[in-house]
Amino acid sequence: MAQTKYLLSEDRIPTSWYNVAADLQTPPPPPLHPGTLQPAGPEDLAPLFPMGLIAQEVSTERLIEIPDEVREIYRLWRPTPLIRARRWEKALGTPAKIYFKYEGSSPAGSHKVNSSVPQAWYNKQEGITKLTTETGAGQWGSALSMACSMFGMECLVYMVKVSYFQKPYRRSMMRLFGANVIPSPSDTTDAGRHILSQDPDSPGTLGIAISEAVEVAAKNDDTHYALGSVLNHVVLHQTVIGQEAIEQMELVGSYPDYVVGCVGGGTNFGGIAMPFVGQNIKYGKKTRIIAVEPAACPSMTKGVYAYDFGDTAKMTPLLKMHTLGHDFVPAGIHAGGLRYHGMSPLVSHVYDQGLIEARAVMQNDVFGAAVSFARAEAIVPAPESSHALAAVVELAEECKQSGDEKTILFNLSGHGHFDMAAYDNYLDGKLEDYAYPEEKIKESMKNLPKI
Ligand SMILES: *Cc1c(COP(=O)(O)O)cnc(C)c1O
Fold first, then answer.
1. Per-residue DSSP letter, 31
2. Is the C-beta atom of 263 inside 6 A of ligand 1?
3. Residue closest by Cα to atom 15 of ligand 1
């Protein structure tokens, strides 16, 4: 079955990242400069990102070689295991075969290190000594802190204030890896001071924290900004997940009918999905590829596909994406990593092209699926990842009704060891279901940039 091969070397770690853009009929729309509304050139992105990553952002090459030093570090936890969830299948009483790729086995506990390591590496090659970033739930902050410590770089993390106090141990982990962690909004940036002047008790949002981190990078020559989700180069780095999964499924003589992943900014999903999208396009495979989002933050199922800013202070280039509007303020659901207003332009584009599907799920179903999975498979899933689990439960139930022995593959993007407060809330029956109201979406749409 040579057709399904990506280039994995003997150690079973991919040698290249896979760029789906090379296999699409229509190229994804480019980012636009927020002032001129012309396609943003490399020089527009250069204050924030190294050229190595900017080139990847707009690349149309199919395979982009992974630098040796990055593969050496990947080797600490890659390839990640592909596991068949036999006990969970039994608990669900489904004839479906359920497999998952376990990214929670990485050092920082999620898929995010697949991108933080190459991002730090490309910056270091171009003489950058310090990276700034934002973090919501803390996973990306942990991942970037770890990567910076590997390469002897400084790391400054703006952590959404509500998470800073709710998830103190994520903060501790970042400090352990040597990072400086500041609750956002803060008085260390113009963007933060502006928000605080309007609302001194602001709990913060990812959009605000991005504005703060971007501002620091834009003002300092030795400093760049790193984003843990959304952008094409981040999706690209995550494709190690799907490439490994294709090979691992092949080793057990199987191929998925469904590929499922949760979406916040879309990168762990893109990472497992894009290699399978490529197989569908190139070899006429019929795998259904499903992105799962919270009903409280439904950018794909309820948002519009339009150019929007990536942040609240409107400093980023305009990205064409499924969005709820850059001024979206999410409800305090227990999946901090999925509370972002936008969606990866690449994931949005393949969704718009009809190459993938999307579903929204409610919080209590998410935790219900997580608990049944944990009790069967003895792994505590992250609340974010558990959105994928909730959709798998739906698919498993459909198979039960129809008697179809479908093969389902999902990405378990991270473990939930730092999310015990959320699990306590669920087990105490205190979680509320919440769907983002239609009127609020309409209101935000009025503030979209006019293109
Ligand atoms: C950050 C995070 C997500 C959401 O980000 P994506 O870019 O959509 O992958 C999902 N799961 C986990 C465990 C995360 O840390």
1. P
2. yes
3. 139
